[in-house]
Amino acid sequence: FAESDGSWTAQTTVTAVTQVQNQYVFTCTAPLSTHTGNVTLQVAINGRESTDVGIRFVLYAIPALNNVEPSGGLVGGKTLVNITGSGLTALAVFGSDARCRFGVGAVSLYSTPATVVDTGNGASMVQCISPSASVAGTTAGHSVELSVSLNGVDYTSVINTTFHYVSFSLTGVLSPAAGPIDGNSETIVFGDQLDAFGSTLGTN
Q1: For residue range 30-83, what is the model confidence (pLDDT) as tens digits?
Q2: Rounded Cα–Cα distance for residues 12 and 1 (Å)
Q3: Mind giving me the DSSP string for 75-130?
Q4: At 109, phi and psi to the nearest 5?
Q5: How many Cβ atoms are within 10 Å of 14's Cβ, its own excluded?
Q6: Count of C-beta atoms within a 10 Å radius of residue 99
Q7: Which candidate, 65, 124, 72, 52, places its Cα nearest to that of 93?
Q8: Are 126 and 114 within 8 A, CB to CB?
């Protein structure tokens, strides 16, 4: 891995070589670095002379994730979740594979596509849709770890935050059950687990 002008280089070892039809596939691990930005990938067959293969790789700082809104959703999933933090927006420019993971386990089972949004003033946000509780490996009344990946492989957890799944039900009882068309009638709704998210409830 190297800067195009040679001002920075870092070496890593090829961990596997496989053949797919008429092509060889090299597997290597990106090196530890304090350098960020675009670098080129170079390959040395003999460990000495390297060849620039013309592929760009982006090194980015680990994002800092600090808030999730809302903090939970229904067991059936499909909740739009906003995750805010820093160090997110830059990768969107390079078409990164941003994903959210609810729970821990195989990426293919627990991650959902995400969108990186620039909210202005240097802030950024990730938006994704929650999967069902069963897909996240949990049930109603339990919470799972929430993490974000900008490349579809490496995940960063949201600091001190989990996503809580609930299953609430309404009894169908309203008191009062009618009111004038100008609104402002205070109506009481009866149901189970309506306090799961504190004061964030809304009605339509």
Answers
A1: 877 777 777 887 777 766 666 776 777 888 888 888 889 999 999 999 999 999
A2: 8
A3: TT---EEEEEEES-HHHHTTT---EEEESSS-HHHHEEEEEEEEEETTEEEEEEE-
A4: -95, -25
A5: 13
A6: 21
A7: 124
A8: yes
